[in-house]
Amino acid sequence: MLKFATISLLALATATPALAETAGSDRDDIVVTASGIEQSRDEVGQAITIIDADTIERRQTTDIVDLLATTPGVRFNRTGSVGSVAGISLRGAETTQTLVLIDGVKVNDPSGIGDGYDFGHLLTGNINRIEILRGSNSVVHGSQAIGGVVSLMTATPAEGFAAGASAEYGYSDTLNAKADVSGTAGAISGGIGGAYFRTDGISSAAVGTEKDGYKNFAGNARLKVAFSDVLSLDLRGYYINADLDYDSFFGAPADSADVAKLDQYVGYAGLNLGLFDGNFTSRAAVTWMRNERDYYFVRGTAPDYGYSGTNLRFEYQGVVTPASQAKLIFGYEHERPDYDFFGFGSTDSQKANIDSVYALGIVQPFTGLSLSGGVRHDDHNQFGGAATFGANANYSPNAGATNFRLSYGEGFKAPSLYQLYDAFSGNSALRPERSESYDVGIDQSLADGRALISLTAFLRNTTHQINYDNATFTYGNIDRTRAKGIEATLALKPVDALNVTASYSYIDARDRSGRPAFDGKRLPRRAENAISLSADYDWSFGLSTGATLTMVGDSFDDAANAVPLDGYALAGIRASFPVGGHFEIYGRVDNLFDADYATAFNYGTYGRAAYGGVRARF
Q1: pLDDT over 90 (residue 9)
Q2: b/e map 294-328, b = 16+ CB within 10 Å
Q3: Percentage of the chain lying above the pLDDT 70 cut
Q4: Non-local CB neighbours of 416 within 8 Å, separated by 6+ positions
Q5: SS3 content of the chain, % helix, strand, coil (to 5)
Q6: Residue 300 exposure: Cα atoms within 13 Å on the Cβ side
Q7: Is residue 98 predicted with pLDDT exceeding 60?
Q8: DSSP state letters, 282-345
Q9: What are phi and psi of 55, to 5 degrees?
Q10: What would the pLDDT profile of 156-171 be if each residue is shown by its tens digit?
Q11: Torsion-angle region of residue 227: left (phi > 0), alpha (psi -120 to 50) or beta?
């Protein structure tokens, strides 16, 4: 059992809003998630962490969840082997209150019970950059951005020509390979990539002995055509095909022959127009996401039940720059989620329509101060309208060496189609979940940027939260929750060869529903304390070595706090070495000390595991 009895000064001095995992990259001074357009992080009052391409490659991590777990304010749970259902909670919010974007497309699943996104099938593959915005931000992103936003991006096409490939093999007959190629020729740029992963896995049931295998193929493509200096076409696509053996979850997890298959399609088509020397830009886009999930009690038979969820969106965004110190961002969105279900002798189909308008202003009244504020109104064909407001400020008295941040954000989450319309438990009278989020923080750069320190305190109140009501046997707006805490980050580069990052977060997330059995209890699967420390060193003869230590405190698996989950500590080591000018060999050991732990009760986790591979770049 891992206990956190005190919060040390070192922990308080340790992760960073709008701070890259590796200090010193110019591109990491730019963020997109805060306002929907590119901004310098010195203009942003919200807490944002960036995981850049260099960090993703250095860490050698296969699973996006494991990368996110090293950032402040993130808690996760996974029900067994790679590919099993995995959820991300930001600052103690529900996993269904995390908005997820892939290349700018909203990918939350309309066929899920709560419209959540299953991170289990999302591997690092050709993901090139991740931005994690913590705190409510529905003004820009609409429904579900109560806990925050996770935005994942593939690489933009290279200038000229570039190609890369890698392949690795390791524990449990695991094979992981990927390749990509991109380039630019005149007015056309594009890229395409693919990643394949297979493993015999582990038993998803903690008491099981049968391994649950997994296969995953992910493909991505981008094409941009510049018709002129002011008009361009932007096309993006992402696809996941997955096949998972899993252990039955009807009752306590146990070995079974169950199989789940997924096809996920993500598409974006947009036109970008710039007028008046770029002082008025417009973006009009259509985005499409479809999740198809089929479940089999026995492999090789017809599916026993399944879900499909589709989200078709039209987006218009305009940006007016009347002066260099001011921007007005405004937009309209139409969203049509729908889902279909079949199985157990029945079928069901439902859909909704949501129309949204928003406006956001960004002003810099004098050097060092940036102010942002906006409002949004969403109209849902079932429950009517919902208005949200947000504002933030960032002030630096010394050209970015010190930044003081303030943020207030409101969030809302529309009831899912399942919660509204399910024949047995649906409730068409549901109202949207609402939240109010407050941040205050400071970022400090030292030694010409070789040390970056950040500290943030936050509070979020959520009302009208939807849960299953055992009194009516339907879903209801019966919950209230409160989350408060602190996040701290340190990024160090004392010499060019050494990078150190550390993060700590304390999250006190509790039920405030007033229901006697749950009021005041900690929200399930959300540990109060978590610490992560990573260090990487580049030796003079070419060898790179690194290690990551993650420590997570105790939590509970249930809302009544009757089923404890012990805290744990995980350590991993890694190394890589170049061979010639284009190749590199690498390897890692995960869970170095073979810790026995769980993120969900009665579900298995990996012990010590080693992997090795080779990369090529051209």
Answers
A1: no
A2: bbbeeeeeeeeebbbbbbbbebebbbebeeeeebb
A3: 95
A4: 96, 110, 112, 113, 114, 115
A5: 5, 60, 35
A6: 1
A7: yes
A8: EEEEEEEEEEEEEEESSTTS--SEEEEEEEEEEEEEEEEEEETTEEEEEEEEEEEEEEEEEETT
A9: -65, -45
A10: 998 999 999 999 999 9
A11: alpha
For position 42, what pLDDT does the model report? 87
Mean pLDDT (the chain, rounded): 93
Mean pLDDT over 20-33 rounds to 61
Backbone angles phi, psi at 571, to 5 degrees: -125, 145
φ/ψ of 47, rounded to 5, equals: -90, 115
369-380 and 326-343 strand pairing: unpaired
| Tens of pLDDT, residues 412-469 | 999 999 999 998 899 999 999 999 999 999 999 999 999 999 999 999 999 999 999 9
Q: How far apart are CA 415 and CA 21, in angstroms?
A: 35
**Token pair listed for 442:** 């400071």
Q: According to the model, what pLDDT value does residue 473 have?
A: 92
pLDDT of 24 over the 70 cut: no
Residues in the chain: 618
Q: What is the spatial distance between Cα 155 and Cα 149, in angstroms, rounded to a whole number?
A: 19
Buried-exposed string 385-401: b where 16+ CB fall within 10 A, e elsewhere: ebebebbbbbbbeeebe
The predicted structure's pLDDT at residue 2: 54
Output the DSSP codes for 507-574.
Answer: EEEEE-S--TTTTTPBPTT--SEEEEEEEEEE-TTS-EEEEEEEEE--EESSTTS-SEE--EEEEEEE
The token pair at 5 is 């009895």
Confidence class for position 358, pLDDT limits 50, 70, 90: very high
Q: How far is 155 from 181, CA to CA, in rounded Å?
A: 10
Strand partners, 222: 191, 236
What is the rounded distance in angstroms from the CA atom of residue 538 to the CA atom of residue 59? 13
Largest CA distance in the chain: 68
- How high is the pLDDT of residue 28? 63
Strand 148-154 and strand 98-102: pairing?
parallel
The C-alpha R_g of the chain, in whole angstroms, comes to: 23
Residue at token pair 């696509």: 237
Euclidean distance between CA atoms 539 and 578, whole angstroms: 11
Inter-residue contact 559 to 544 (CB < 8 Å): no
Residues with Cβ within 8 Å of 83's Cβ and at least 6 positions away in sequence, in order, are 120, 121, 201, 214, 216, 242, 244
Q: Is residue 336 a contact partner of residue 369, using CB atoms and an 8 Å limit?
A: no
Kindly list the distances between the CA atom of residue 426 and the CA atoms of 43, 134, 315, 339, 422, in Å, as whole numbers in the listed order: 43, 30, 29, 14, 4
**In this predicted structure, what is the pLDDT of residue 470?**
86
Average pLDDT over residues 256-263: 96
CA-based end-to-end distance of the chain:
48
User: d(Cα 565, Cα 497) in Å, to the nearest integer?
Assistant: 39
